[in-house]
Write a structure and sequence with these properties.
The chain is mainly alpha-helical. Helix content is about 80%, strand content about 0%. The longest helix is centred in the first third of the chain and has 31 residues, at about 5-35. The chain binds protoporphyrin IX containing FE.
Length: about 210
């Protein structure tokens, strides 16, 4: 049975919204436990844990947003695309919280230290570049902005998500001091998602040239 766009908008979107919020609520709950002296998962270094946790979820959601169109193509469930904007915006929100946790909890809002890090620590420079690329995508995500820019220009702008995601993968790989599996797994998933798009584009071109 096909699910209508109306049903997805009415029930699917609020459910997805609540699901995407869960990691943040879970983190807030553990902070509350930590502050009130209960058992929590924040380890002996809650600030580092928080920063990394938020960075991880930002990257996961970014990958999930990038996975929506391939999954919609492969399964034929095209309406999945209705959820892409929300997942992308959540990726951006978690990325902002990740940076805010670094600035606020780690550096106590020492903006000078923050900009020094952005300029001098390579993995932070790369993270900042990723955030800069993601920002216009979030700003122009409303229907009003799509209309104002025109669909073609808006779609071209959306392509910034690819270099942004690559920069996030590099940020993660550079951040770890030794070779570790986890950042490489994330980078591998990203490579598959980007590879899928390249193949889809090439197949589209061949089909066009055969017409
Ligand atoms: C101004 C921009 C950024 C700054 C200052 C920043 C800062 C940091 C810092 C300080 C760490 C942890 C380093 C450590 O604990 O040794 C980190 C890790 C990480 N960041 Fe960022 N970041 C930025 C942008 C981003 C963005 C845009 C994303 C994702 C969309 C992201 C995803 C990650 C991930 C996945 C990790 C690794 C987490 C882990 O170890 O599990 N970062 N970042």
């Amino acid at each position: 049975m096909a699910v209508s766009a109306r049903t997805l908008n009415k029930f699917g979107k609020p459910a997805l919204f609540a699901a995407l919020l869960l990691p943040a609520l879970w983190l807030a709950w553990n902070w509350w436990l930590a502050v009130s002296g209960g058992d929590h998962v924040l380890t002996v270094n809650p600030i580092e844990y928080t920063n990394r946790y938020l960075g991880d979820w930002a990257f996961r959601y970014l990958l999930a947003a990038l996975a929506i169109s391939p999954v919609a193509d492969l399964t034929g469930f095209k309406r999945l695309i209705l959820f892409r904007r929300m997942v992308g915006l959540f990726a951006f929100a978690y990325a902002c919280l990740h940076v805010a946790s670094y600035l606020g909890l780690d550096l106590f809002f020492d903006w000078r230290a923050f900009w020094e890090d952005v300029l001098k620590r390579n993995y932070i420079t790369v993270g900042m570049a990723a955030l800069v690329l993601l920002t216009p995508l979030a700003i122009t995500s409303t229907n009003k902005m799509v209309k104002r820019l025109g669909v073609a220009r808006w779609q071209r702008l959306q392509r910034l998500v690819y270099p942004a995601a690559i920069l996030v993968a590099v940020h993660y790989i550079m951040m770890v001091k030794s070779i570790q599996l986890e950042p490489l797994i994330y980078a591998g998933i990203l490579a598959v998602l980007l590879g899928f798009r390249l193949i889809r584009r090439a197949v589209g071109r061949v089909r066009l040239s055969e017409r």
